[in-house]
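User: For my dataset I need records formatted as: sequence, then structure tokens, nothing else. Please produce one.
Assistant:
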Amino acid sequence: MAGKSLLPPPPGAGIIASFIKSGRTWLRFMLAQYLADRHGLGPVDLHSLFAIVPNNDDDPVRGRAVYAHADRPDVPRVLCEHQFWSPFDPAVNPTVVMVRQPVDTIVSAYFMETRQTGRLDVPLGDYLRTKRGIARWISYHNLLVAQRGGPDVTWVSYEQLTHDPEATFARVLDRFGIRREPAAMARAIAAAQFDRMAALENEQGFPGNSADPADPQGRRMREGRIGASAALLSDDDRDFVARKLNETLDIAARERLASLGCNL
């Protein structure tokens, strides 16, 4: 498999940037459905969506190589990205940042790394305390608000997309200069409902997920409810997360996340 590319995206391409497990698959699926509807790109599932909205990397299944519409200048090109690059110019690459509250994000990342990829085999409480746990989430968001916090970058949250999908999706389309079409937006939002995406995963699997299909914690569409992951933590775990957030999350990051409805 080809290595991940850290090169900047092509000029003119839009970017959806996020920490892992922040709900980007949900937003990507919604956007792919909308573009397919508006531009006649065919049916969208959990595999074909990468031909419409790929990753900004060299993954042969989900990366730039599978983008199928380079010959269609009328189709907006949007890539998904976890990395930062420099120099960064939002006028060259219109950018949407997607964030999610920390506990739901870190617990979801834990199940990805222990069940979906098999990279780690540690208890959840230990994972929270490793460099891949809450410390990584905090470092990423401190850097994110410093480097992508300007007015020319649109920030949305998993929580906003849950509570007001129409307005939140409209902001995403606006940032990418994609014309709003209310009926197509409604169809895309409906197609991207959690239960529908979970049913697709049950039928087709998800690219790159090697978990046992019978393992509910190994699914990509594992848990869509806001705040549900807190029940999986002990009191000591919750206290640890709260203390680390209080001690090391920058005030600017804290204020930005709170303004987006992310419960810290």
